Amino acid sequence: ISDIETLEKNSGLIQSGGGLAQFTAHLVARSIKTRNIDSYLANLRATYARRCSAALSALSRHLAPLSVTFSRPTGGYFIWLTLPSTVTTAQFIEELPSTVSVSDGAPFQPSMAHAAHTVRICFVRHDEKELHEAIEIMADTLKSLLI
User: Fold this and answer.
1) Which of 55, 57, 109, 137 lies most in the core, judged by the most C-beta atoms within 10 Å?
2) CB-based burial of residue 107 (10 Å sphere; 0-12 exposed, 13-18 middle, 19+ buried)?
3) Are 93 and 16 in contact (CB under 8 A)?
4) Which distant-in-sequence residues (6+ apart) come within 8 Å of 83 by Cβ?
5) The whole model's pTM is what?
6) Residue-by-residue DSSP string for 64-122
């Protein structure tokens, strides 16, 4: 018998109508109560800080010389880029290879003033090496559009 079958038969978890989210909620609540989550979150913060720093370093090295400006986050998971005014976000995203994924920044902008040239990148999903490689590809793509 699998662990899931044991839970289903012995705990009433599945029959309660709440599904497995109740089980997950219980685990999270217990982790918070026992403070086990503190070390996990500290590890995540350190990992994300390293990744953010690596991305910022790569952006400074590869995209800043191409007149790309970018935010320096004090929280969150994203770095916001503003492309040169001669390249739209749509052009940039269309030319990027499928191995590099960025988001059009327009839906997240409070003002549409520069929305046509904004890009949002997430730095938490990939390690430092992958971030550097992706930003190099972004720079090569932008160079091809600036010619």
Assistant:
1) 55
2) exposed
3) no
4) 68, 89, 92, 117, 118, 119, 142
5) 0.77
6) GGGT-EE---SSSSEEEEE--TTS-HHHHHHHS-TT---EESGGG-S-SSSGGGEEEEE
